[in-house]
Specification:
single chain, 127 residues, mainly alpha, 5 helices
């Protein structure tokens, strides 16, 4: 694997999953904005789940883009993913008693981080 290989794969996949989350949120909300739904006081956990996925993917992409290219970037990418996994797992625990929407948001972020970790482990196992 070349320098940056893991980091590049992780960044590309996180960006791909972020785009998928946006498309899903658009499909779920239809012509109504999420802000309008929230103002109306309607619970929308399925939307919030994908919003959490989007937030986690966006945060990870930003963290990965801040890392310097070259030697050590793969290790930094793995550390960024580990940090995101911990942060979102903690968020799920924190949101347990704050309603379905908040819990769905946190679960979406946590699920995305776990998905990326699983995919990365699978890809490394194939090499």
């Amino acid at each position: 694997m070349t320098a940056g290989g893991t980091a590049d794969r992780l960044e590309a996949r996180a960006a791909e999953l972020r785009a998928e989350a946006v498309m899903t949120m658009a499909a779920l909300a239809g012509p109504t904005s999420a802000c309008s739904l929230a103002r109306d006081g309607r619970s929308f956990p399925s939307y919030k789940l994908h919003e959490g996925r989007y937030a986690a993917a966006s945060g990870l992409v930003r963290a990965l883009r801040r890392e310097l290219a070259g030697e050590g970037r793969d290790a930094a990418a793995l550390a960024a993913l580990a940090e995101a996994r911990t942060r979102w797992t903690d968020e799920v625990g924190r949101r347990q008693d704050q309603g379905k929407d908040w819990l769905a948001y946190a679960t979406g972020g946590s699920d995305l981080c776990e998905q990326l970790a699983d995919e990365l482990a699978g890809a490394d196992g194939e090499a």
